[in-house]
Design a protein that fits this description.
The protein is α/β, with parallel strands linked by helices. It has a single domain (about 1-265), classed as Alpha-Beta Complex (2-enoyl-CoA Hydratase, Chain A, domain 1). About 45% of the residues lie in helices and about 15% in strands. It is built from nine helices and ten strands. It has helices at about 30-45, 80-100, 120, 155, 160-170, 175-180, 190-205, 210-225, 225-250, and strands at about 1-5, 5-10, 15-20, 50-55, 105-110, 115, 125-130, 135, 170-175, 185. The strands form two sheets. Strands 1-2-3-4-5-7-10 form a seven-stranded mixed β-sheet, sandwiched between helices. α2 (about 80-100) runs antiparallel to α9 (about 225-250). It is globular, with a radius of gyration of 18 Å.
Amino acid sequence: MEKTDQILYEAEKGVAVITLNRPEAANAQTPALLDDLDAAFTRAADDEDVRVIVLRANGRHFSAGHDLKGGNWPAPEKITLEWIYAAENRRYLEYTLRWRNLPKPTIAAVQGKCIAAGLMLCWPCDLIVAAENAEFSDPVVHMGIGGVEYHGHTWELGARKAKEILFTGRALTAGEAERIGMVNRVVPLDDLDAATMELAGQIAEMPPFGLRQAKRAVNQTQDVQGFYAAIQSVFDIHQTGHGNALSVSGYPILMRLDGMKERLKGR
């Protein structure tokens, strides 16, 4: 197993396994983690021996979202909306859209909390296997923002469920996520890795070109229905939340942990 600071990568029997490796921080995302994750996805996509890509996480939680403690972003002395837009466009929009359109099937294995930007890691994957204790939430309305940057909510949850989750900030259980079609399978926590690898192994036996064509067919159908245009336009709307924060308090409001720590108690 090869290790970078925050990402593990291994490949065997046609399956590449990429592991988020910040368990001490509930796999909160730093810029370095996202850069390493993008590099790992690219490596797996370029490896002719890899047919399926699995994204998993070490520790009790899949991901607590963006690391909100500050100090992780190399920022200019004066933070402007232009700077925020450029930084987020690269790591939160370009990366996620690229991961969604990788030419190989991807599977996310999710346990524990998957909060806000954690959704931006599992939603671009083709399939999601969830442990029974998995919870999915996007509580950033508390921060005056309408949802995370990769705004797949309507597509993943349906319009009314998306509004409920955003308006209330409550978490969606694994069972609920499976019933609405956001999650493919729910399994006991102890079986999560084995069940995910079994599914990946089944898919790896399929012809690679057929898998690629099937994935393109589904993704392009969503795009014709407006997915890609919606993701782009809602990202622009998202930036108005940052603009408001800048005008009100010079941006630190976005770094508040109020209301977020409660969701990670006992991690």
